[in-house]
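Hi everyone,

Forwarding the result from last night's run.
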Amino acid sequence: MKKALHITFLCLCSIIGFSQGITVIDTSDYSQRTVFIKDFKKSNADFIKKIKVNHSGKVSKSLTTMYKSFESEFVEEIKDKNFTFKSGLEDYIQNIISDLRKDNPLIPAKIEVLIEKSNYPNAYCLANNTFVVNMGLFNWLDNRDQMMAVISHELGHNILDHVLNSQVESIKNNLNESSVVKNLREVKHNRSAKAFDLVKNKIYALKALKRQHEKEADSIGYVLYKKSNKNEFEYVNALKNLLDFDTISPKKLSDKIYLKLYDLPNQKFNKKWLLLDDFTNYNYDGFKQKLDKDSIATHPETEERVASLRSSFEELLLEKKSLPADENYKKIRNLTENEVLPNLFWNEKYGVGIYAAMQFLESEKEDKESQTFYKEWLGKCFEKIYEGRKNYKLNRYLDTVDPKNHSESYQQFLNFMWNLKLEEIKNISDFYNKTS
């Protein structure tokens, strides 16, 4: 949930007619999506043919089934507009790849780029030379060089064929374990414990392989990046920014912003809305961790990855602050910041959307036009919260308080939301929707 809260600072839009001057992304991209789907299906078919040439037996059959199924699901995501094709962001990433390719002939000649409507700062590559970059990544990195560093890392995965190799390894493990599973049926005592050990060991082995792949992609990615004569220290700075995403606490909301936003002409602010539940007597000691979290972490700790890079490349020992973004990157980041609330709305994260809108509205940096924009989304999210509460589906859109994993600020927010009565939610929704 902590990561979900950081998503409040990143986003994408399917609605164009909001505050004048606020630029949002045009999603009337039917023709582009149609062309991409056609190309993707052909690319996937060619990839399956290569699988059948390079693999045989059950491995080939399992991979073929996997990629045919994946194609169907992925195409549905594209049809559902989970990606954007007219943002200009995909061209920006393609330009970075072209720059890297000039000095690195190992990079495939054709790579498709998709921009996902996700605020999570991440990028990943598929085995068939399709790269997906989340919109939130643009907001979490400081400049173009850091974006190039992340893309270089993903190209490292691509060149080393990590995705397919991991899938092959997983399938082989499943085939090897089939006989072990059969033997478990003959066990009369402690069968569940032995079965758990089997699953646990499998998870550890596969996660260890992924951790190894991350370090390998870091190394080859840095070599690709370095050949392009970019600022070397920005490669490490990009990793450090992603470390901040994992550890930084969400911005704290003051009580004043609640009073400012929810003391309405037809509904005065009620102090009881901010009353907190008492979790001081909640006992966590009875929970016993059965799996070692470090062992099943997909990515090694960022400090460990940075240390590994510095042990191989001495020039990375030098510490330097991030360089300021150029004007083009500033425009890109401004565009993606304007998409924060629409993206949360698109993904039905209405509770987090309200929390994010309140954070933006509390900022003294925002101008009047931006404040109006955020209030419009505040009203839209409250409207959906009202519908959810009315139809007994509020848990789908609003978290329940988790004192062990939520910051105090977010706990305060959730208490406020759950303390509101149905009619009070409607009054807030009506006020901001009428105002906008």
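The chain is about 60% helix and 5% strand.

Cheers,
N.
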